[in-house]
């Protein structure tokens, strides 16, 4: 996952529990909306543990998929989980993709853009590696709005400790809204730009199922959670528990929204 915060993402298993399980629900909906001809060449930038790559293989009949990521633990997890002759994984950065001009028909990225320090440069790189008429598309979480699991956490955390705002992607990632995403793509010269919301349910079996990923230290909210001393973390835990809607059997039913954007390379 290319990022300007190299210590933010490290443990692939922790990421799977924190965000990977929800990204698996978004990825097929994103791909169905993007649309792609069979036998296309794809590049998945910030491929992480291979969630989006797996969905491309399952739904899009690709000729080739290249997964690029700067985090070695994620790449190793992806290589272990995905053994398909059409796929290769390489270490690289979103700002310097290790591929030639026009090498792909589809360039996609899932849940990465907000962690890239120069977003304009990242989109230019995606465009560079796509042939004229090809597609550039990505999706990000709606951190400031309908990502309920994280919004509850940070709303409670900030009420207890204003310093939590420094970790809140809803504050730190203004790009994760439809207007800024559309402007980014249009400003880069992409044509036929469209933005849409993708909504999924996020059901937790219990409060422990909800809370455990925040103890993994991977991602902004877990980083904040694990920066607290034990007493402060327990206060936060209990305050979050009181805020969450809980069903009669302890289940917690929430929802998550991702914003997706796509455009065509001119030429």
From TrEMBL:
The keyword Methyltransferase applies. Keywords: Methyltransferase, Transferase. Residues 43-137 form the Methyltransferase type domain. InterPro entries: Methyltransf_11, SAM-dependent_MTases_sf. GO terms for biological process: methylation. GO terms for molecular function: S-adenosylmethionine-dependent methyltransferase activity. This is Methyltransferase domain-containing protein. It comes from Microvirga thermotolerans.
